Amino acid sequence: MWNALTETLHALSAQYEKIGALQKKKRGILVALDMAALEKLTAEESACARTVERLEKERLTLLAQIAKETPGVTADTTMEELALLAPSDAVHRAVLGASRKLSLLVKETKEASEANALLIEGALMAVNRTLGRIGGAVVDPVYGQGGTEQVRHLKKNLDFKA
Questions:
Q1: In the prediction, which pLDDT does 105 show?
Q2: What's the pTM?
């Protein structure tokens, strides 16, 4: 069971490494505003997310089994504390190393995702401005009463002497 937990942690790390690589690739795609490539990348991200979800369920199931069989393990037990309760020194090192690596990868992936979110917001604002110019309206970057966007219609000078 401990070995299965270690394998699951390694599998999660591998998925987060893939997601991290996709996030780096996504950054370039967002800067270039390549929507076709972004669509393909989003499908890859979705597949990785489904795999992470499955592995997380597996990890939680294994942790629940370990908690039943190991005295002193509660819902508040951290992975560092859990590793101390491992049946051998080799298992302790394996679980602790895999857990630390996974934590680092999750943190890096979250930071990359937040950076990409800023790029997405900037791109969306640029698209809104362009659409506003085309349609004769501007969406202000603030919200009005009731949480709705404020839209201003640009004054049009129409030439009726055509």
A1: 95
A2: 0.74
Burial 70-109 (b: 16+ CB within 10 A, else e): eeebeeebebeebbebbeeeebbebbbebbebbeebbeeb
* Rg of the Cα atoms in the chain: 24
Contacts of 8 by beta carbon, 8 Å cutoff, 6+ apart = 55, 58, 59, 62
> How many beta carbons lie within 10 A of that of residue 24, not counting itself?
11
- d(C-alpha 22, C-alpha 38), whole Å: 10
The owner of tokens 């055509």 is 162
Cβ–Cβ under 8 Å, residues 19 and 87: no
DSSP label at residue 141: E
State the virtual CA torsion across 46, 3, 96, 15 in degrees, nearest 10: -10
**Segments of the chain scoring below 50 in pLDDT:** none
d(CA 115, CA 124): 15
What would the two tokens of residue 113 be? 């995702």
Q: At what angle do helices 89-135 and 2-32 cross, to 10 degrees?
A: 20
Amino acid at 129: R
Cα 134 to Cα 71, 125, 128, 152: the distances in Å are 67, 14, 10, 13
